[in-house]
Amino acid sequence: MATLAGHRGRRSKNPLAVEDAIAGWVFILPAVTIFVMFIFGPILYAFYTSFFDRSTLGNRNEYVGTANYREILFDNPDFWQAFRNTTWFTIGVVPTQTAIGLILAVLANRKIRGKTFFRTAFYFPSISSSVVISVIFLWMYQRNGLIDFAVTKLGFPRPEPVWMNNPNGVVGSFLGLFGWDNVPAWLEGPSVALLSIMMLNIWTTAGTMMVIFLAGLQDVPGDVYEAASLDGASRWRQFRDITVPLIRPVTLFVTTVGMIGTFQVFDQIFVMTSDGGPNRTTTTMAYLIYQETFKYGSGLGYGSAMAMLLFALILGLFLLQRRLVGQNAL
Amino acid sequence: MTSRPPFLSRRDTLKLLGAAPVAAAAVTAGPRTRGVAAQDTTEVRLTSAPSSPAEQRVLEGLLQEFMAANPSISVAYEPVTAEYDTKLQTDLAAGTAADIFAYDSLPAPDLMQAGVLEPMGERLSEAQVDTADFFPGLIEAFTYEDELYGVPKDFSTLGMVYDPAAFEAANVTAVPTTWDELRAAAEAITEAQGSPAIVYGPNFDRYIAFLYQAGGAVINEDRSEIVLNSPEALTALQYYHGLYTDGLAATYTDVGAQWPGDAFSKDQAAIVFEGPWLIGFMAENAPDKAYEIAELPAGPAGKATMAFTVAYGINANSEVKDEAFQVISYLTGVEGMTKWSTGFGVLPSRPAVADAYLAEFPRRVGFLNGGEYARPWQLGPGGTRFSANANAELQGLFAGQLTPEQALENMQSRAEQDIRLD
């Protein structure tokens, strides 16, 4: 009897559970299919392709082992230049956009008049088309453009060459003021042209970071602040010792997303520069991958290998960053 | 808005999901049968990169005339307005490239070497088309290992376009025909107008004309060696860059223009080194501005200019090669080319058509004369890559990061790395 009852019990419960499970799988099937077909599959295939010398036009396809990787790492000066450019870009953009995003979030989180307006205004650049913004900034950076106009109105000399055509490194130029000429290439810093794009990038992404920080700030319980102010903590103390530590997981998320975004920067380079110029100083890694693969005929294998190196780099930096910020944070 | 759809039962949802792939398959299968439906006409796909709506209209008109005369062939024209070379490459890789595609002289060696183009020689001789009827430099641009892979549809040369009013204001009466005269004229005009007379850019496709005028070359005669770093090249670079350092020339970005022609149309330049593409641009942006066209001034080694040319080639994987060839024959034949070049304004690649062209556009003789000695804008397999790398070095030179000697040295080593010699 007991077994029968158990059997009946399972029967009466199970068909629904099984059906639920099937339905669940069926419902996520489109998402899984799309993920495997268009994201995970291509990544694996790119990894596989990176061991081949395969021309885009398909007349060359042979297994070459790690030759692509070796050529990129030891025989392609452009790769290292792109690596330097991208690193400077990241070093410049990520901390700045994180700081600005946090400041904007804290400001927009206060009970001030027109709060919604400011939130919308700060977020607006992030939802505008990246290409349109790039083109507008390109006009602003032009000779006699808005920025030239502002600089000359303020009484400064007009910079030569014009912003987007200046390949001189900003750190190198700064050190040059103190008489240190012949700065090594890795210390030259981003070129003025790259710096111009960095500023644009900060402007567009700070809003996104603000929104993420705002969500994080909502999660900080109000009674903590209340207790702190009863104890006589100043606004700055509260920010430093309550807000910053409590939103650390959000900070990790923001810096990670920011880092991935900056290492992959492509559209702004594509729209604003000609072939990653002047003098290759705005050629980022993602842009170089595009150039090598689709413009210079280095082949799909070579481009895939470069993309894998970029992937490894981002992954490595992410793991390092997670370790620095705290393992349990994310 | 008022009636909500009834909730689907779970079973219905499953049915729907099951049906979706079938429906999707039916949709994707659709276009494949399209060719079968058209019974007697063969469809030939043609793709090119029209530089303007005007160019597209003229080509579409020509194709209409062709189809009226050849009812058995229908040509589907697929214009690509941006990133043409990239799109062509991915289309070829995916096997979806058009039957006929236009391609530029610079990437031509890479395409010819890759074997994606159908050889033309045999078909041309069968159709009794003599390649000697074309400008020799243009045929050379689409020849690889003694086989022709495309028929040049037109070409553009670099000329010296100048503003006669600026010349007059500076009392320059003779059109400069040598480097020294150009320099003297530029000095006079710069002084008279108070701003640089010439607007150009740190572009290898302009500098190379000066390189040839000085007697230099990128690759030696038998294509065995890169010979870019030569005294002649240095002379040319010092002259070209010297115009800039001496304040006689400005780059187009210096004056806030998109390209030299843009600066010319805004009266920011008295002299630019551009091609026939400037004419349509001027008609649209500065229709009232008077300008003249002359040949590029001769250097120490004589006259030289560049021929930027585009050919129609047949996709090696095409299934309608004979029909495709018929289309190309019409477009590049005397009749089609006359209509094409006089309709749109690019230079005809057949000297025989030149008379009709000059009758229509007498002032463009400066561009057309260059056709006799123009060198194709081509640097061998890997040329696209080298051209971009050479531009980077020139940008470094113009920004003051490099000396002409260093820039040349870098360009030499870049060329050795990028250009694959035979």
The number of E-state strands of chain B comes to: 13
Overall pLDDT level of chain A: 88
Count of separate DSSP helical elements of chain B: 19
Count all strands of chain A and give the number: 2
- Specify the biggest β-sheet of chain A: 2 strands, antiparallel
The global form of chain B is: globular
Number of domains of chain B: 2
- End-to-end gap of chain A: 51 Å
Backbone shape of chain A: globular
Quote the CATH topology of the largest domain in chain A. Answer: MetI-like fold
Name of the CATH superfamily of the largest domain in chain A: MetI-like
Quickly count the domains of chain A.
Answer: 2
For the largest interface, the chains and their residue counts are:
A-B, 34 and 33 residues
Oligomer: heterodimer
Structural class of chain A: mainly alpha
Organism (chain B): uncultured Thermomicrobiales bacterium
Pfam families (chain B): SBP_bac_1
Region (Disordered) (chain B): 30-52
GO molecular function (chain B): maltose binding
Please describe what this structure looks like.
- Chain B: Keywords: Signal, Transport.
- Chain B: Belongs to the bacterial solute-binding protein 1 family.
- Chain B: Pfam families: SBP_bac_1.
- Chain B: GO terms for molecular function: maltose binding.
- The complex is a heterodimer of chains A (330) and B (422).
- Chain A is an all-alpha fold.
- Chain A has two domains: 33 residues, no CATH class; 254 residues, MetI-like fold (Orthogonal Bundle), CATH 1.10.3720.
- Chain A has 14 helices and two strands, in the order H-E-E-H-H-H-H-H-H-H-H-H-H-H-H-H.
- A two-stranded antiparallel ribbon of chain A has the order 1-2.
- In chain A, strand 1 and strand 2 form a beta hairpin.
- In chain A, helix 3 packs across helix 8, helix 3 packs antiparallel against helix 11 and helix 4 packs across helix 8.
- The longest helix of chain A has 48 residues.
- In chain A, 33% of the residues are buried.
- The relative contact order of chain B is 0.16.
- In chain B, 48% of the residues lie in helices and 14% in strands.
- In chain B, helix 3 runs antiparallel to helix 15 and helix 14 packs across helix 15.
- At the A-B interface, helix 1 and helix 13 of A face helix 1, helix 4, helix 5 and helix 18 of B.
